[in-house]
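Two quick folds needed for the group meeting slides. Do the first one here.
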Amino acid sequence: MKNFTVRISKLVGPPTVSSWSQIHDFFPDDLEKKQKRGIFLAVLTFSGVEQGIDAVSYGREILSRIHEEYYGEIETSAMEKLVTSVKKVAAEFDGSEHHLEIIAGALVENALYLAISGLGEVLVKRNGQLQKILVGTSEKTESASGFVLPGDLVVFGTEALAKNLADGVLKAALDNETPEEITEVLAPLTIGKEENAQIACLVFRVSEIPESVSEPPPAKKAKFKISVPKINLRRFTIKVSSESTKGRRIAFSIALVLIVLLLTSVFFGITKRGQTEKTKIYTDLSVQIDQKINDGQALVTLNPSKAKELFLSAQQQLDQLKNLKINIPETQQLTAKVEDALGLVVKEYSLSEAPLFFDLGLIKDKASGNQLFLLGKKLVVFDKAANNIYTIDIDQKSAKIAAGKDLPVNSRLIAGDSNFVFTLGDEGIFKTDLSNQTTSQMIKTDSEWGQIKALGDFGGNLYLFDPLKKSIWRYQSLETGFSTKQTWFKSTTLPDFAGAVSMAVDGSIWLLDQNGKIYKFTGGVQESFSLKGLDKPLLLPAVIYTDSDQTNVYILDKGNNRILVSSKSGDYQGQYIWEGLSGITDFVVTETDKKIFLLQENKILTIELK
């Protein structure tokens, strides 16, 4: 099967307070995504954003959602996934108060899949003939597919673009050879009126990727060598006159000067040629560095991992450039640009300390914590040694013992929802009502349980992670209590959970393995998930945290003394580094309050989220 790629150029109108247009393109590096999802292209425009909402941020969120939906799972066909992604995102963000238009496409091998929500259109110019192959409607998502040929010129255009094009303008523009020349002709359309903010146009030309490209042999460095013929000198005696000796000395001096001049000329010739080669290498590297910085800056919000990858590659090329030792101001300028670019995505925060938030000793003597979780504005701490549960109001910093004497024997795990805390012990699972501090048994110990390693709650339902039985037991919330246990996993083919160390629940269930592997399950089915853009792999990871109120996933990486922040699609978001993190038992995050709360024996510490 032949593979194709595209050369693209973009044109968008200037944003206003309530309107914004943007174009997103993604060329996956992951081989499986490349084969099953291909190159993703999308044009977006919207207007009518409510007052107080930043149009640019709102638009980027939409593009991010489309990207996340399309690449989120790769088992369904590309065409089906593209259409459902556009439908789903359009349903989430479109409304009577504002207008949203999405034109999306995916090039998988030689097949082009298209979907439009709104009144956009897609045109193709092939063999000199221009045709509209898909026109959107306001009633439903329109879709189409077909095979591309090398040289095809494809245009994604919004409704505003079509309305502002005079007859024959687009046709004349498409007579140009490159996508860049075409958008340059169309660029004046974006100047002037406020409604031009909804103009967006993506132009790309299709080309075939050769099946195999043999690399040229490395160029041999020229070797400069001066050969001097060997002269055999024999001992001899000759009598000459003084005039003859003088003439010979003059001739020898002249010959010596000529040889020195020749050698000097050769030396400077070699030096000049080497300097010319260095200058060419310098120029090539500086152009590549600039290009990677510009490409990365366009992806900072939409695809931080790819942006970081481009910036790190630019940094490596900058090191090569510096090794050429060409001291000109451009080197310092490029250095500053690379450092500024890395500052946008590395987001590495080194801390000298984590301030104390609360001392558990203020609640009772010798109080300590083994587990920590968040219930609204309350921190809930489980003290296994004292068999107590403590609650701490985040705003007031007031604390109390919420449960103790009625907890089950050998309590070891807790979870919570709303105003209730659930505790797992030898006798089963008990519920504590924090409003009146009463505790009662809800679920008896089941003989089929193996080793319950984590307890979670979502929507009132309880989830018990049992790695010994390779299962997550689900207990559904009923008016009278809980249902009998159900096996939550839909498949019998599951990973080996023997090394799992932590679980988080946000609707999906996240399991963290001691080797750094993260498993994500939604509806009992495993999803593809991997961390991207890390500067180094996880080392001795201990806790994973997220919930339905947080947009990111947080991982306590003890071996690297850091808390790693990732989006829920696996893109690197940042990291907090502090040497004391190796001594942390548990932690929770509240993005609303911009805080990370750390449990360290009898203390709760804080880190401010950036």
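Then this one, please, same format:
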Amino acid sequence: MSLTVIRPTPESPIEWREARHWSERHRLEQLVSHCFATQHDARITQYLPRLFGLWQQERPVAAVGVRRADEGRLFQEGYLDASAEASLTQALGTPIARGGIAEIGNLVSSRRGLQRVLFPYLIDQLAEEGLHWVLFTAIPAVINGIRRLGIELMPLRLADPAWLGQDREAWGHYYDQHPWVMAGDLRLARERLRAAGLLSTLREGDHVRPA
């Protein structure tokens, strides 16, 4: 199935919201598949349980998926030698509860600069839900973009695609860019964003709440 990405004007208001209806989720899945195909020659057919998007003129322009660690095994745990909470506990030297961890994935945007808009919304959202740590896999360009927001990230290990087996082929040349498994402290990130004034533009109604 092909997807025609219609680009709203940069001046159009941006709305952050979670896909609640199947039609919204389908449009976000299409955007994820399209961006991974064009940017990495990858075939994405699996999506995280919750999908959030940036919308302009009712069209998705960026997307990200979320899965809580207390709701099942994380994709990121395939790269790790231990569970998410054990890996973080070892790296930090302090006990980390599984219930405070989530992973993000399916991260895409239809044009440059949108991830800088997306991450303050995402971090505020997850911190508001009581989550403390986020895990994700990202290529160096994405990692550097997040760090430019003033957010501290902790590398856990290079993402080795060997555990994917035959599914490795579906990822195209994504792993040629040497992605890393990263961790971030959501509460600290939220404080940094607020101090930098990057949360002050979140409008009432843009911040979605868990159902």
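Slide caption for protein two: The chain has a mean pLDDT of 90.
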